[in-house]
Write a structure and sequence with these properties.
mainly alpha, 49% helix, 8 helices, single chain, three-stranded antiparallel β-sheet
C-alpha cells in the first residue's frame, strides 16, 4: 500500500520504448516536455465520451495489453491530452515476477507490441519501421532461447507470426511454430550473433 508502482509513462517513438516516470515530480517534468506522448494504463482510466466519439473505442485487434497505449496515442493524434490524477490512488495486484505467467501473456505482449508501434508511430519515425520492429522482436526471442526460456520464446514467436499474417483478437495457443518463422529466427540469430553473446 505504501509503494507507488506507476507514476506515468510516455511513448518514445524514436526508440519504440515506453519511458516510465519514477516519481510524480518526474512525471510533471516529462508532461511539460512531451504532453502528447503520455500513456495512461487501462487499470483505472476515464474517458471523455466526446473524445471517444472522435477516436472510436478500444482496438479489438489487441484483445488485451497495449490497448491502453493505443487509445492514448489515438487520442493524442486527435488533439486530446491524457493526464494522471495524483489525488487518486488505485490498488492493483501486480505480478512483479513475470516469468511465471502463462504463455498467452507473452504471446499477447509480443504481438500487441508490434501492432501498437506499427499502427501508431508518427510519420517522421517510420523509416524502416517494419524491419526495426521485427529485428528487435527476434533479438528478444533469441535472447530467451539462449537463456533456455523456451516456453516464453515460443509464445513470442507465435505472436510475431500472427502479427505478420494479421491474425488478431484472442490468442490461440498450442499451435506449432511455422517452419518459415523458424527460418527467419535462425537468420536473425546469425545476424545478431555478436550482440547476443556480449
Amino acid at each position: 500500500p505504501t509503494a507507488i508502482d506507476y507514476c506515468g509513462g510516455f511513448h518514445d517513438w524514436q526508440s519504440r520504448q515506453t519511458i516510465r516516470a519514477e516519481s510524480a515530480t518526474q512525471y510533471r517534468e516529462l508532461m511539460t516536455k512531451f504532453p502528447s506522448d503520455a500513456w495512461i494504463p487501462g487499470t483505472a482510466i476515464l474517458f471523455r465520451v466526446s473524445a471517444l466519439r472522435v477516436t472510436g473505442p478500444l482496438d479489438e485487434r489487441l484483445f488485451a495489453y497495449y490497448d491502453d497505449n493505443d487509445i492514448c496515442a489515438r487520442l493524442a493524434a486527435a488533439g486530446w491530452i491524457c493526464r494522471l490524477d495524483y489525488h487518486s490512488k488505485v490498488r492493483h495486484v501486480v505480478a512483479h515476477d513475470i516469468t511465471g505467467r502463462k504463455p498467452y501473456f507473452f504471446y499477447l505482449m509480443q504481438r500487441n507490441y508490434l501492432i501498437f508501434w506499427h499502427s501508431n508511430t508518427p510519420l517522421q519515425f517510420r523509416k524502416l519501421l517494419w524491419l526495426k520492429l521485427l529485428s528487435q522482436s527476434f533479438y528478444e526471442i533469441n535472447r530467451l532461447y539462449l537463456k533456455q526460456d523456451i516456453k516464453q520464446a515460443e509464445a513470442r514467436m507465435l505472436g510475431v507470426g500472427d502479427f505478420i499474417v494479421r491474425r488478431y483478437g484472442s490468442p490461440e495457443m498450442g499451435r506449432s511454430i511455422p517452419h518459415w518463422m523458424k527460418l527467419i529466427r535462425r537468420l536473425a540469430q546469425l545476424q545478431q550473433h555478436r550482440a547476443l553473446h556480449r
